[in-house]
Amino acid sequence: MKIGILGLGLIGGSLGLDLRSQGHHLLGVSRRESTCQKALDIGSVDQASVDLKFLASADVIFICTPIGLIVPQVEQLMVYLPMKAIITDVGSVKAPIVEAVSPLWQNFIGGHPMAGNTDVGIEAAQRNLFVNRPYVLTPIETTPNRAITILEEIVRSLGSIIYHCQPEKHDRAVSWISHLPVMISASLTATCLSETDPEIFQLAQNLASSGFRDTSRVGAGNPELGVMMAQYNHQALLHSLQQYRQNLDEFIDLIEQEKWQILEDKLKLNQQQRPKFL
Amino acid sequence: MKIGILGLGLIGGSLGLDLRSQGHHLLGVSRRESTCQKALDIGSVDQASVDLKFLASADVIFICTPIGLIVPQVEQLMVYLPMKAIITDVGSVKAPIVEAVSPLWQNFIGGHPMAGNTDVGIEAAQRNLFVNRPYVLTPIETTPNRAITILEEIVRSLGSIIYHCQPEKHDRAVSWISHLPVMISASLTATCLSETDPEIFQLAQNLASSGFRDTSRVGAGNPELGVMMAQYNHQALLHSLQQYRQNLDEFIDLIEQEKWQILEDKLKLNQQQRPKFL
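YS: structure for the whole thing
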C-alpha cells in the first residue's frame, strides 16, 4: 500500500519506520528540505518532498503536524486527492478536528496514538514506538466501513491497542488523565516560584527530590503544546479544572478543620483506585 | 562510638548498616522482637532489644520512629540517659518536634535525611541510602557546639549533603516541595474518580499514561504518612495550599479568557525555572 505521511517529526517519522519495515511504500512530506533528507537517511520514508502534491498517489495519509495545522493542511491537501483516499490525523484533541474535517472529506477518521517521549523531531523517531500503546480511533456515523477496516489493519500492525469512541468522549477522557495533569503540575512549579524568603526558596531547591520532580514534570514540558491542549480542548479542560478545584478545596477544608480520619480515608481510596489507571 | 537507633525501619535499619560498617557499635531498639532479630540478621545492629533502657550507654541516639511517636519516645528514653548523650531524630517535620524536645534535652538536634524509597520496614534497609542526599540539621541557639560537631561528623560519614536551618524554615521549604505535591497529586486521582460517565471513566483508565502516572504518584503513597505531614506541618502546608490555589485560579482564568500568550509565557517560565529544583 502507498502510505503518505505529512509532518515528519517524532510521530510521523516513527510511523514511517514501522510501516516501511512491513513492506508499505512510504511517501513523506515536510515543510523543510533538510527534514525530508533526514527522513530518507534514517529509512523512515521511501521518497520525500516539500510539495503536498507529492501525496496525490497515496492510499492512506497520516497528518502528523501540530494540532493547529491539521485542518488547514487537510484543506490544502484534498484538492490533489482522489475521493477514495483515506485521511487520518494523530492530534491529541479530536472533536474540533473531526467537526471541521468530516464535512470536507468523507474518508476521514480521527486518530490519536498515545505514544511519544520527551524528545521531538525526526531525530527522535524510533521503531516500535506504538507497540502496546493505546491508539484511539474516532470514526463517526457517516464514516465508510471500508476506510475504518483499512486504517484499523494498519494501526493493528503497529502493535497498538485500538480503542473506538466518539470524538467528544475521547476529549473528556484525555482532559482527565493528560491535559489536567499538565495544568496542575504547571501550577506546582509556579507556586514554588512564589516563595519570597530567599533562604526558604534556596532550601526548597536544595531539598526537592523525586516527589517534586515527578509531580512537576508534565507541567514543564513543551509550552506550545500546553497552550494548544488548552485551546483545542477548551471546554473539557475547563470542566476538569473546575472539578479539580472542588476536590482541592475539600482537601484544604479537611486539613483546616483537622478532620484527619476523613483525610486518611480519602488518601486510602486514592491508593486503592489509582492502580486502575496504570 | 556507641550509637543507638530507636525504630528499626527503612531509615533506622539503613543508618545502622552504614554506621556499623564504619566501626561504630550499634545498639538497636524496636517494639517487636522479630524486628530486632531481622536487624541482627542483616547486620544493621550489633545488639538489639525491645527495652528502651538498652540505649542507656549510647553516645548518640537516632530516633527513627514515625513522627507522632518521636516526642513521647524521647520523654520515656531520657530518664535512662546521661546528660551528655546526644539525641537526634529523622522526622520530616521539625518545628513541633524541636519545640517539644529542646526544653527537655539540651543535647538534642532535629534532623531530616531526605532519603527513602517506596518500600518500608527493616527488610527494605540498604547500604548507602543517604549518599549524595540532603540531610537537614536544625540546631537552635542553645544547642551545644560539641553536639553539633559530633552529629555532623556522623552525618558527613554517610555521604550526605548537610544543610543547616531553623526548624520553621525547614518546614516551610518541605511544605513547598514535598508536602504540597502530596496533596495536589492526591487531588488529581480523587478528581478523576469523580467522572460519572462510565464510558469516559473506562476510557480514561485505558488511556492514562506516564503523565497521569507521575503526577498522581506521591498522592497515592502511605495514607498515614500523608495525614501526619498535614497534622505536624499544619500551618506551612495550609499556606502552601492556599498559594497553590491562587496559582491554579490564575491558570483557570487565563484558559477561560483565552489569554494564550500569557499562558504560554507562564509555561515557559516554569520550563526555565524547574531545573533549579532538580
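YS: worth flagging: Residues 242 and 248 of chain B are 10 Å apart (CA to CA).
IM: good catch. Also Residues 167-192 of chain B form the longest helix (26 residues).
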